[in-house]
Amino acid sequence: xxxxxxxxxxxxxxxxxxxxxxxxxxxxxxxxxxxxxxxxxxxxxxxxxxxxxxxxxxxxxxxxxxxxxxxxxxx
Length: 75
Hints:
mainly alpha
């Protein structure tokens, strides 16, 4: 399963994951979110490979943030 997660993370945009890390993470994960946001493809892969399960949690949080923003933007 972690390998499947890695593939999903690698195909994802990364913006919402990094945003969730910066907004909801501990000091460490806020810094990692900043690094993810600034990373090129090679370094994103390194972050995702080293922290797959932790980043996955923020990936899911990012999906919820994105959905909430879309809902708030409509109407």
